[in-house]
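User: Hey, my collaborator sent me this sequence without any context and asked if I could get a structure. I don't really work with proteins. Can you help?
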Amino acid sequence: MTTAAITVCGTGIAGLATALALARRGQPVSLLGPRRVIAPAVADEYCPRVYAISPASQAFLYELGVWEALPEARVAAVQAMDIRGDGRGRVDLHAWQAARSELAWIVESSELERALAQAVRVMGIAWLDDRLAGYENGILHTEGGARLHPSLAVAADGAASPLRTAAGLRVDSRPYGAIGLVAHLDAERPHGGTAFQWFGADGVLALLPMPDTARGAQVSMVWSMKAQPAQALLALPPGQQAEALAQRLRQATEGCLGALAPRTTLLGFALTLDISPMIAPGLALVGDAAHRIHPLAGQGLNLGLGDAQALAETVAAREPWREPGDPAILRRYRRRRAQPVLEMRLATDGLHRLFDAAWAPLGWLRNAGMQWVNGLPGLKRQLIARASQ
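Assistant: No problem. I've predicted the 3D structure and written it out in structure-token form, which is a compact way to encode the shape of the chain:
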């Protein structure tokens, strides 16, 4: 049997960031999970999955020695947000309103994972290239026959989390009845570093600024679309699908970026709201293993990175006589994350419910509210500050 003080199960972004944050604070940590081979980046070809990185997450990644390793030419800065309701409601947010140069940055999943994996190698963190087979009495069993008995096991293995399941932790899950559609698009007009968002009858559409390509401007689409039209769109043959998507985009955006044409395959994933207890004896959950929220605010990864940072800081600050998996330490971690996770969950779920309701008076109220917010510079500064955390 192999014994390690802390074992992080999961080698995606959340797992790599958690292990790196712990190691940088002098904690003995190892990784359990497959090593993923990430193909070299190719000019004008971009990973279909991108993330909006908040200023707080950017500072955390900089602290980990990861941010500066990202290729600058493949990172797009968000300098403004243009949010539109299903009526005349509109909110414009600009970085300068909060004395900032950027509101966020759009980063490819593959580039972030590559930079994190490189930093893990540089730190010399032990990495067992294997998969979890079971978890019993605090012991991790792998498919390769290894047995690990850490003081603290960290479930950073995604929304389906095999470790969370093996530990018997219950997750309260509520499907949104919607599918997240993602694709990169060629745009006829430049985006100007602006992230656009529309709340419409079919769901919430976001167009995120991306680096230009040889064909011109590029944006990344995240469309939280109701299940029926989304499934119908995904079922179409490629040619018909591209034409149908372009037509829907033209109607939804009212041509604000000109013609929009898909440049990547349309992908879809079911949207759910997941709530977990965050901890169990000798076990802490981070990232999607701990919670999932509606993507309309683009804050899912930022919450996960916040988990990683909070867990590492809490474990490193423990009393000398306590082990990393001490129940008191785990409770401190859960308390520290309770408010940020709850606030983000209530905000995203509340906005979804508000704009998903078809009641006419509520439609007038939500659009009038957006116009009211747009006329209050002080409130907009507060919104930017909250989104930056």
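In plain terms: The domain at 6-54+110-173+273-354 is CATH 3.50.50.60 (FAD/NAD(P)-binding domain). You can pass these tokens on to your collaborator as they are.
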